[in-house]
Amino acid sequence: MARPEQVLLLEPQHELKFRGPFSDVVTTNLKLSNPTDRNVCFKVKTTAPRRYCVRPNSGIIDAGTSINVSVMLQPFDYDPNEKSKHKFMVQSMLAPPDMTDMEGVWKEAKPEELMDSKLRCVFEMPVENEKTHDMESNKMMSSSLLKSESSSLPVKSMSSTLDDGEVKKIMEECKRLQMEAQRLREENKQIREDDGLRMRKSNVMSSQHTSVSMKKDEGLSARTVALIVLFFVVGIIVGKLVL
After folding, report:
1. For residues 151 and 67, what is the distance between their CA atoms, to the nearest angstrom?
2. Contact yes or no for 42/58 (Cβ under 8 A)
3. Taking the domains of the chain in order of start, what are their residue ranges?
4. How far apart are CA 92 and CA 42, in angstroms?
5. How far is CA 20 from CA 78, 131, 142, 205, 239, in A?
6. pTM higher than 0.70, yes or no?
7. What is the DSSP string of the chain?
8. With 0-12 CB in 10 A as exposed, 13-18 as middle and 19+ as buried, what is 55?
9. Which of 26, 86, 109, 240 has its CA at a distance of 20 to 30 angstroms from the CA of residue 121?
């Protein structure tokens, strides 16, 4: 039996675009709207769960309202020749009137009650003069999202619909990735400091070598003058003796 048509309105409908550079977390938003007169349960799933953090990844959208889902792509080495195969699926169903256990409702749901929409991921690199602006925007957006939950999510949904186990796993993964990025930044900083130290040592050695050479030249000049004076004095004495 065919599944019913998706009642939620997705924006965007078919693609989630992530704009580089991808050396830091890149965030894009997915808007879910419920135009019906009933509450709708939803879940957001992906084929690459270790590469993304999703806030919120499940919940209830009240009748006639909408929420914004933030999808955060973790840093990675971008290859323009490699096409993204990552996909997302928004799964939904009408919430039962007497629902008390979100997870239990999903487990007991019949296939003909489930609705889904699929989106593919697209990675884009900005032109050269836009890179700095986009990087700063992504940093500010990702930082604010990781510090606090989305302000558009109702308090009721946050407290009663999020899967604690899934949230904990995602937070642990985000923390691990952030620690790894911090470690790489520290290694890069240490390498730059070592290079600077080597350059300073090289300059000091070059300066010392120049100073020694100048002293040698001064010594040679002084000995030459002394010899000329000596020869001059000897010449005068010899001349007097001859006269």
Report:
1. 9
2. yes
3. 9-124
4. 4
5. 9, 8, 14, 44, 92
6. no
7. -PPPPP-SEEESSSEEEEES--SS-EEEEEEEE--SSS-EEEEEEES-TTTEEEESSEEEE-TT-EEEEEEEEPP----TTSPP--EEEEEEEEPPTT---HHHHHHH--GGG-EEEEEEEEEEPPPGGGHHHHHHHHHHHHHHHHHS--TTS-HHHHHHHS-HHHHHHHHHHHHHHHHHHHHHHHHHHHHHHHHHHHHHHHHHHHHHHHHHHHHHHHHHHHHHHHHHHHHHHHHHHHHHHH-
8. buried
9. 109
pLDDT digits (tens, 9 = 90+) for 2-41: 678 999 999 999 999 999 999 999 999 999 999 999 999 9
- Which numeric CATH code is attached to 9-124? 2.60.40.10
Instruction: State pLDDT tens for residues 51-61.
Output: 999 999 999 99
Could you read off the pLDDT of 76-91 as tens digits, one per residue? 998 888 888 999 999 9
Give the total residue count for the chain. Answer: 243
Strands 15-19 and 115-124: parallel
Encoded tokens for 7: 């009642």
Query: Token pair 């990844």 is at which residue?
Result: 57
